[in-house]
Amino acid sequence: MVTDTNRFDRRRLLQAIGGGGAVLIAGCMGDLVGSDGGDADIQLLTMGVGDNIQGFFDETTAAFEEEHDISLELTSVTWDNAKQTVNNRVDGDQAPDVGRWPARWIPQLVGKEAIEPLDELMQGSFYDKFYEGMAEGCTYEGSYYGVPWAASNKCLFYNKNVFEAAGLDPEKPSLNSWDEMLEAATQITNETDTHALGLAGADAIETGSQYYHYHWSHGADLVDDDGAPVVNSPEGVAGLSFYADLHQKHGVTQPSPLSSTRQDIRELFESGSLGMVIAHAYAGLNIQENDAGFEFGIVQVPEGPAGRYSLNTVDSLVIFSQSEAKDLAKDLIRFYYDEERRFEYSSQKGFMPVMQSVGERAHFADSPVWGPFIEAGQYARTRPKLPNFNEFNDRMVLAIQQAVGGEQSPQAALDAAQEDLMSMMNAG
Amino acid sequence: MGRVFRSQRLRYVHQHRWAYLLIAPAAVFLLAVVGYPIVETFRLSLYQSQASTATETFVGLTHYEAILTDQAFYDLLYRTGKWVLAGVLGKTLLGLLIAVALNADVRGQKFFRTAFLIPWGIPYAISAVVFRWIEHPQYGALNAALLKLGVIEQGVGILGNPDTALLGVVVADIWIGTPFMAIIILAGLQSIPVELYEAASIDGADRYQQFRYITLPQLKGVLFIATLLSTIWTFVSFDVIWTMTRGGPLNATTTLVIQIYQVGLENGAMGRGAAYSVIGFFVLLMFALVYIRVYAGDDL
């Protein structure tokens, strides 16, 4: 029996009560930026507005209000509350007009018919502004549901001082393949007291993100074209074996990778306590800003037997179906994609540019930090868009932990994961 | 007979109509914020309900069947039991020791009583973050101290080892929850008549015998309430584990409450999450009933 719950039934009332609480909490805990009450003509919900970008939003909000003679309410919530807040607002019929939303979560809102297709907007000269891969990252079931807002991808950072101490060439290191990376890591482990490589293994979403580079580059996939899980292919087992062996067999990682999140290993590298780590561009920006006292280099994520991939994450701007100001919402989106504004946003926030013209500016193209990341665009690969990707990813993280912790062989860990994922997908 | 009873009851209600009217708003409020969510959770547990869709499919007891026939659920219950037992035992014993010490006539008694309350006044999540840092394999104060003393050669990841992670979070939970126990027990200690100790002393009872035969029996009621509350709070405790380990590594610190959050809210399987909640509700209810029956007897 399928019950249509589009009407305001008991469940929705409960969710609305919860939503009210979550919105209240989010309002208190998140940084409420430029809110002028609930009577605004248009509402924009975004996440994680910090000091580095608050000025940008203050200025652009004022400029848009003046340009259109309307009031714009900008609300920022913390990332921890983002998903729940948006879902509660949608369920409580209190959705904002425009919202920032990770592209990989688009299926979830499409499933609720909560966001509008933006095919009409994403065409012609407006569409041409974006890197193709970033724009395509906002599609689902053949339609554009978002406009690329922010993006990040990965490269391999290495500590030049550590390389030099280990007798490795700090300027032209051999780090093209996983095997070469392992060779360098082994030499660092043998010749220095520094832990050679950061390996994420904690019970966190990002452990999957770090591992998928190995999985994909060994020729494995997470799901097939029909969306069925295929994680335990021989290639997948080879990828996880290599990942786990870095700790289990070769001992070239930091101690206790099962307690290390992606953030932990990035911070270790930023403090000069690691030889290499796969990280976002802002690891480099942080080191430059904090003058950490060591030189670093950036190369592409090493390639495996089946190629090279850089995990690409795209956040988008979406328009909510409940919006009663959809035309104004589209105007707001167009407003934010003025080249100068995008440059200001990307450069201040430290995110990959999503517009080609911004990426071609010297600030990015000639930067020793940004240059490799712009180049990595050609290796970009996103996680599959599945309505229950979080659950999928959680199960993968458990398999990664089992292999890295030596509890199960990579084959057994992935076989068990495959079985659970099949049941999960069949259960819907 | 029945008619007489009904008419008496109606008369009683009529006589007290103003009292009923006055408590009605509170009763309606309680029904809305307590009763309704409980009923709704029961109902939701009978449906397949993904947060990502606007549809619900009635599946009857399928979620319960899947959960109760899965060995992983019993591992989860066992782990939850260990977490609750270790936490409540630690908090009670430490709380008792501190309360006895604070009850003695020592200098700075007021200062210590206030100081011991501080951990309880700090938001749990913040305390958990502090403990995560203390136990961090690279930056942690604990590892730094052990390294300096030469006990270990390199940082040990307490929270990264499935064998020690539960201990790592239990220690934080004990630190956070002990002040409550200490204060409650201290209140109980102060209500014990001094004459009992004086009489026992005259009869030749030593300190241990006084503690064993006067203090503990006199504290029975207080300890009963305090441990019951502590058990419930520890059972439903979320912040400490989530902040420190998110239930990992390898599910070594995943308790029933963490599982409910992961399944129902993080992964959006609201029906299955609700079924876990209902099971948790009954587990806690059964524990409370048995506990009251066994330990409270006719005293309460």
Features:
heterodimer; A: 428 residues; alpha/beta; D-Maltodextrin-Binding Protein, domain 2; 2 domains; five-stranded mixed β-sheet; four-stranded mixed β-sheet; 19 helices; B: 300 residues; mainly alpha; MetI-like fold; two-stranded antiparallel ribbon; 15 helices; 2 strands; flat
Provide an overview of this structure.
The complex is a heterodimer of chains A (428) and B (300). With 428 residues, chain A is of the alpha/beta class. Chain A folds into two domains: 10-152 and 315-374, Periplasmic binding protein-like II (D-Maltodextrin-Binding Protein, domain 2, 3-Layer(aba) Sandwich), CATH 3.40.190.10; 155-311 and 388-427, Periplasmic binding protein-like II (D-Maltodextrin-Binding Protein, domain 2). Helix content of chain A is 48%, strand content 14%. Chain A has helices at residues 10-29, 51-68, 79-91, 106-111, 124-128, 132-136, 160-165, 178-191, 205-217, 234-248, 262-270, 281-290, 326-336, 339-349, 356-359, 362-365, 370-375, 389-404, 410-427, and strands at 2-4, 42-47, 72-77, 98-102, 139-140, 143-144, 147-152, 155-159, 195-197, 274-279, 296-299, 310-311, 313-319, 380-381. In chain A, the strands form four sheets. A five-stranded mixed β-sheet of chain A has the order 3-2-4-13-7. In chain A, helix 18 (389-404) packs antiparallel against helix 19. The radius of gyration of chain A is 22 Å and the shape is globular. The model of chain A is unreliable at 1-37 (pLDDT under 50). By secondary structure, chain B is mainly α. Helices cover 73% and strands 2% of the residues of chain B. Chain B has helices spanning 2-15, 17-44, 62-68, 71-103, 109-115, 118-121, 124-134, 141-148, 165-190, 194-202, 207-218, 220-235, 239-244, 256-266, 270-296, and strands at 47-48, 55-58. In chain B, strands 1-2 form a two-stranded antiparallel sheet. The longest helix of chain B has 33 residues, at 71-103. The radius of gyration of chain B is 25 Å and the shape is flat. The relative contact order of chain B is 0.12. Chains A and B meet through strand 1, helix 1, helix 4 and helix 18 of A and helix 2, strand 1, strand 2 and helix 14 of B. Strand 1 (2-4) of chain A pairs antiparallel with strand 2 (55-58) of chain B, so a sheet runs across the interface.
